[in-house]
Design goal:
The protein is of the alpha+beta class and 151 residues long. The chain folds into two domains: 74 residues, no CATH class; 65 residues, no CATH class. The strands form two sheets. A four-stranded antiparallel sheet has the order 4-5-6-7. The longest helix has 19 residues. The chain is elongated and about 85 Å long. 1% of the residues are buried.
């Protein structure tokens, strides 16, 4: 917060306010946030971001002294979260206990099918979660493997 005389503010107000080190630090912090958001591969780099500097100005009852406080904030682009669809298959033993989950990615084309550009559709991703025979719940010794790890 800057407290200053009205005359000082009239003569060189911009320099007095904008040279405040806390305001400069706040702006730099928000600029770093914006730049990190632009670098994030899950955000659209062409959408605009904003850095907002808000000033609150109040005067004393005699109107000779003014208090100015500033705050900084930024508006960044939301991250685009990847969506995927997976089929779930459950394996149950003879006693009726769950022993394995197998999740397979749902693809729009069949694996190996050629696309318009001559490439092939890669095989669907798989995740296997295997439970030990002693319990219905997974333990630390239970395995979680993707198809690549199994091969």
């Amino acid at each position: 917060m800057i407290v200053t005389d009205r005359e000082v503010l009239k003569n060189n107000g911009a320099e007095t306010i904008l040279s405040d080190p806390e305001l400069v630090d706040g702006f730099c912090d928000e600029l770093a946030t914006v730049l990190q958001n632009i670098d994030d591969p899950r955000t659209n780099p062409t959408k605009p971001r904003k850095i907002i500097i808000e000033f609150e100005i109040s005067a004393t009852s005699n109107k000779e002294t003014i208090a100015i406080s500033a705050s900084t904030n930024s508006k960044i682009v939301k991250k685009e979260i990847v969506k995927d669809r997976m089929d779930i298959t459950r394996s149950i033993d003879d006693v009726g206990r769950l022993i394995e989950y197998k999740m397979t990615e749902v693809k729009s084309e069949a694996p190996g099918q050629a696309d318009l550009f001559g490439g092939e559709e890669p095989p669907a991703k798989e995740v296997n979660i295997t439970f030990s025979e002693a319990s219905d719940k997974p333990s630390e010794s239970d395995s979680v493997k993707t198809e690549e790890e199994a091969q």
